[in-house]
C-alpha cells in the first residue's frame, strides 16, 4: 500500500471513527468527543490534499482508490469545511427548539450522522471506480437527508423529503447509465468500472453516448444542475446552517468531480467535443435559471442556495470548456466558492438569532445594527458575486477565457452576459443586506457571532491567497494534471 | 432468463403503477425482488454470485418488513387519492416505457427482451414516484426502478462485482430506512402521508 493510499484511507477512516465514538460515548462526553475529533479529521484530509496537490504529476490510480489533483482539491475543501461545520455546530444545537429525534438523543444523533456524512463525502472524490463512486454518492443522500430534516419542522420535512426522492430517482437513472457502461467494457461486469477501464468502452459510440447522458442526467439531479435542481433551494435553505455549508461547499462539487471523471474517461468512446458539450449545456442552463432568482429579495439562506446553482453551473462550464485556463479557473472556483459559501451559511446562525424573520424574508441593514455580522455576510456575498479582489472574479475570468480558448465563443459570450447579470443581482443584495434600511434596532451581540468573526478573518486570508494563486496557476503542473485526469 | 420470466416481472411492475392499496404494492415489489433473487441463485456460477443473490433476497424481505410496519403505524382514514386515474397512469407508464425502448439502442445485455424489460421497469418506477401522492408509493417507485436495475445487473455479460451488488442493496435499504423516518414524521405532523401537503416551499 502506497503512502497516498494509506493517507487516503486514514482521511476517510478518521471521521468514520469519530462517528462511531460519538455513537458510543457517554452522553456528557458526546459534544467534547465531536469537537475534539474535528481537528485531526480535518487535518488528515488537508494533509492528503497537500500531498496530492504538491506532487500532482504522480497520481495514484487504483481500481478502488484514486488520489490525483482533483481528489486532492476536493479532499482539502471537504476537510476544511467539515471541520468548520463541526466547530460551529454547538451554537446551532444550543438554539434548537425541536428536532427529528428526542432531546436526550439529539446531540448524539446530530454529530454521529454529521461525521458519517463527512466520512462518506470524503470518500466520493477518492473512489477509483465509477460503481463505488455511485454507491458513495447514494449513501451521502441517506445521511444528508436526515440532516436536512433534522429540525423536524414542517418546511424541513418537506425539503428533506423532496431531496431524498428526487436525488434517489436521479441516481437510479445514473445507475442505469452505469449498467449500460458495464455491458460495454471488455471483461464486462460491474467490476470493470475503474476510471481507466472505462476508457476501453467498446460497444459503439451511440450506446456510449446514451449511457453517458443517463449518467450525467442522474448525477446532475444530485449536483443540483438545472433543469433537475428543484430540491436544491429547499434543502439548502431548510437544513441546519453547518449542514447547508457542507451540502453546498463540499457535496455538490464532490459529485461534480464524479461527472468530470466520467467525461474524461468516456471521451475516447464518444468524442471530446460531445462529452464536453453536455457539461457546457448543463452549465449554461444552471446560470440562466439562477440569475432571475439572484435578482429577487430572497431570505438569506435561499439566496445562498440559488447562488450554489449559479456556481455549480460555472464549474460545470469550466469543466466542459476543458482547457488549461478553464481548469485553472475551476480549481480556484471550487476552493473559493467553498470558503465564501460556508462563511455565508455559518453567518446565518447568528443572523437568525438576531432576526428570526430572516428565515422567511430578505434581510436589510444588518451592517447598521450588527456591524461584525454585516461584515461577515458582506464578505461572503461580495466574494460570491465575484467582486474584485474576490478569487471568484479571477476564476470566472479564467473560465470565460478558457471558453474562447476552447473554440466555444458563443457559450463563453453567453456565460459572460449571465455572469454579469448574476453579479448585478448579488451586488444589489450585498448593498441591501449590509447598508439597507434596518428593520430592527437591536444591537445586542447575536449568539455565535464571535466564532463567525474568527471564521471571517480566516476566510479573508484564504480568499486573498486564492486570488493571488489564480494569477500563477495556469500552465502549472497542477493544471496539466487536472487536464490529464486519471491516467 | 426466459422471455416469459422477464415479462412477468414487467407485469408485476405495471400492476404497481395501477394498484390502489399500499400493501398490495409492497407485495408486488417484494415478489419481484424475490423472483430476481431466485433467478440469481439458479444462474449462480460462483460463490460471489450466490452471495449477490442472497443479498437481493434479504433486501426484498427487509424492505417488505419495513414497509408493512410503516403501513401498520400510519393508517390513513381513507386511501390517499392519486392525482391521475389508474388507466391514465398505466397509459403514461407504457408510453414512457415505449419511448425509452425506442430511444435507447441495444445496450449489450444477454437478451433484447431483458433490455426492454429493464427500461420498462425504470419507466414504471419513475411514473409511480411522479404520479402517486402517497409518500410510501413514491418510495415504492424508487424500489421498482432499483428492481429493474437489479435485473440489468443479472443480465450483464461477464463477471459481476459482489461488492457493488451488495452495496446497491445496502444503499437502497438505507435510503428506504431514512424515507421511513420521514414518512412517519410527515404523518405525525400533517396527519396524512399525502405529499400534496408538502408544497409550501416555492419562490
Form type of chain A: globular
Number of domains as seen in the coordinates of chain B: 1
**What does the radius of gyration of chain B come to?**
17 Å
Please write the string of helix (H) and strand (E) elements of chain B.
Answer: HHHHHHH
Mean pLDDT across all amino acids of chain B: 90
The helical percent of chain B reads over 70%
Question: Biggest β-sheet of chain B, characterized?
Answer: none
Ends distance of chain A: 19 Å
Structural class of chain A: mainly alpha
Largest interface: A-B, 54 and 52 residues
Largest sheet of chain A: 2 strands, antiparallel
Give the rounded overall mean pLDDT of chain A. Answer: 93
Query: Strand content of the residues of chain A, in percent?
Result: under 5%
Determine the oligomeric state from the structure.
heterodimer
Uncertain runs of chain A with pLDDT below 50, 5 residues or more?
none
**Globular, elongated, flat, extended or rod-shaped: what is the shape of chain B?**
globular
What order do the helices and strands come in, and which of them pair?
The complex is a heterodimer of chains A (487) and B (203).
Chain A: H1 3-24, H2 30-54, E1 60-61, E2 66-67, H3 69-94, H4 103-126, H5 130-148, H6 154-184, H7 195-198, H8 205-223, H9 231-238, H10 241-270, H11 272-294, H12 300-321, H13 324-354, H14 366-369, H15 371-385, H16 391-405, H17 409-435, H18 449-472, H19 477-484
Helix pairs in contact in A: 1-2, 1-4, 2-3, 2-4, 3-4, 3-10, 3-13, 4-5, 4-10, 5-6, 5-10, 6-8, 6-9, 8-10, 8-11, 9-10, 9-12, 10-11, 10-12, 10-13, 11-12, 11-17, 12-13, 12-16, 13-15, 13-16, 13-18, 13-19, 15-17, 15-18, 16-17, 16-18
Chain B: H1 3-18, H2 22-42, H3 47-73, H4 86-103, H5 112-131, H6 135-154, H7 162-190
Helix pairs in contact in B: 1-2, 1-5, 1-6, 2-3, 2-6, 3-7, 4-5, 5-6, 6-7
Amino acid at each position: 500500500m502506497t503512502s497516498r493510499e494509506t493517507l487516503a484511507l486514514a482521511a476517510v477512516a478518521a471521521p468514520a471513527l469519530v462517528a462511531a465514538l460519538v455513537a458510543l460515548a457517554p452522553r456528557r462526553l458526546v459534544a467534547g468527543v465531536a469537537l475534539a475529533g474535528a481537528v485531526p479529521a480535518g487535518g488528515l484530509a488537508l494533509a492528503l490534499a497537500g500531498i496530492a496537490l504538491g506532487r500532482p504529476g504522480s497520481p495514484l490510480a487504483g481500481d478502488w482508490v484514486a488520489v490525483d489533483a482533483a481528489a486532492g482539491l476536493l479532499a482539502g475543501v471537504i476537510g476544511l469545511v467539515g471541520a468548520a461545520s463541526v466547530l460551529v455546530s454547538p451554537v446551532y444545537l444550543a438554539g434548537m427548539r425541536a428536532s427529528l429525534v428526542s432531546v436526550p438523543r439529539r446531540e448524539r444523533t446530530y454529530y454521529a450522522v454529521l461525521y458519517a456524512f463527512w466520512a462518506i463525502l470524503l470518500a466520493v472524490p477518492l473512489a477509483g471506480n465509477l460503481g463505488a463512486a455511485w454507491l458513495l454518492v447514494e449513501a451521502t443522500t441517506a445521511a444528508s437527508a436526515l440532516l436536512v430534516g433534522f429540525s423536524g419542522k414542517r418546511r424541513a420535512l418537506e425539503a428533506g423529503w423532496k431531496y431524498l426522492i428526487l436525488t434517489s430517482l436521479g441516481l437510479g437513472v445514473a445507475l442505469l447509465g452505469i449498467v449500460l457502461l458495464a455491458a460495454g467494457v471488455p471483461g464486462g461486469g460491474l467490476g470493470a468500472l475503474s476510471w481507466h477501464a472505462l476508457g476501453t468502452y467498446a460497444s459503439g459510440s451511440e450506446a456510449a453516448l446514451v449511457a453517458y447522458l443517463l449518467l450525467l442526467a442522474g448525477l446532475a439531479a444530485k449536483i443540483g444542475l438545472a433543469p433537475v435542481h428543484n430540491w436544491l433551494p429547499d434543502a439548502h435553505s431548510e437544513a441546519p446552517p453547518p449542514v447547508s455549508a457542507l451540502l453546498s461547499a463540499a457535496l455538490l462539487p464532490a459529485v461534480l468531480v464524479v461527472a468530470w471523471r466520467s467525461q474524461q474517461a468516456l471521451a475516447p468512446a464518444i468524442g471530446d467535443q460531445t462529452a464536453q458539450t453536455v457539461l457546457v449545456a448543463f452549465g449554461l442552463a444552471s446560470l440562466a435559471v439562477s440569475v432571475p432568482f439572484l435578482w429577487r429579495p430572497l431570505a438569506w439562506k435561499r439566496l445562498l442556495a440559488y447562488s450554489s446553482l449559479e456556481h455549480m453551473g460555472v464549474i460545470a462550464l469550466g469543466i466542459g470548456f476543458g482547457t488549461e485556463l478553464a481548469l485553472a479557473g475551476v480549481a480556484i472556483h471550487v476552493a473559493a466558492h467553498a470558503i465564501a459559501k460556508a462563511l455565508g451559511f455559518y453567518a446565518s446562525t447568528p443572523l437568525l438569532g438576531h432576526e428570526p424573520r430572516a428565515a422567511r424574508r430578505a434581510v436589510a441593514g444588518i451592517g447598521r445594527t450588527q456591524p461584525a455580522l454585516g461584515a461577515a455576510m458582506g464578505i461572503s456575498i461580495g466574494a460570491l458575486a465575484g467582486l474584485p479582489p474576490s478569487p471568484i472574479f479571477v476564476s470566472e475570468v479564467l473560465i470565460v477565457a478558457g471558453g474562447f480558448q476552447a473554440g466555444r465563443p458563443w457559450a463563453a459570450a453567453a456565460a459572460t452576459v449571465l455572469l454579469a447579470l448574476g453579479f448585478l443581482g448579488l451586488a444589489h443584495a450585498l448593498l441591501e443586506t449590509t447598508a439597507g434600511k434596518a428593520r430592527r434596532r437591536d444591537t445586542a451581540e447575536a449568539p455565535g457571532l464571535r466564532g463567525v468573526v474568527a471564521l471571517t478573518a480566516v476566510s479573508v486570508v484564504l480568499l486573498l491567497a486564492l486570488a493571488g494563486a489564480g494569477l500563477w496557476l495556469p500552465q502549472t503542473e497542477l493544471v496539466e494534471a487536472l487536464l490529464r485526469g486519471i491516467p | 432468463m426466459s422471455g416469459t420470466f422477464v415479462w412477468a416481472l414487467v407485469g408485476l411492475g405495471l400492476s404497481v403503477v395501477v394498484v390502489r392499496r399500499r400493501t398490495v404494492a409492497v407485495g408486488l415489489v417484494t415478489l419481484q425482488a424475490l423472483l430476481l433473487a431466485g433467478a440469481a441463485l439458479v444462474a449462480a456460477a460462483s460463490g460471489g454470485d450466490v452471495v449477490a443473490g442472497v443479498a437481493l433476497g434479504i433486501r426484498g424481505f427487509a424492505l417488505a418488513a419495513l414497509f408493512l410496519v410503516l403501513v401498520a403505524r400510519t393508517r390513513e382514514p381513507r386511501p390517499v387519492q392519486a392525482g391521475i386515474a389508474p388507466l391514465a397512469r398505466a397509459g403514461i407508464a407504457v408510453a414512457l416505457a415505449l419511448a425509452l425502448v425506442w430511444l435507447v439502442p441495444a445496450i449489450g445485455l444477454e437478451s433484447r427482451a431483458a433490455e426492454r424489460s429493464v427500461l420498462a421497469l425504470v419507466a414504471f418506477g419513475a411514473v409511480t414516484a411522479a404520479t402517486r401522492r402517497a409518500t410510501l408509493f413514491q418510495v415504492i417507485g424508487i424500489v421498482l426502478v432499483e428492481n429493474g436495475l437489479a435485473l440489468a445487473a443479472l443480465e450483464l455479460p461477464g463477471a459481476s462485482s459482489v461488492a457493488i451488488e451488495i452495496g446497491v442493496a445496502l444503499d437502497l435499504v438505507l435510503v428506504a430506512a431514512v424515507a421511513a423516518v420521514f414518512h412517519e414524521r410527515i404523518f405525525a405532523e400533517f396527519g396524512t402521508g399525502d405529499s400534496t401537503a408538502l408544497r409550501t416551499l416555492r419562490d
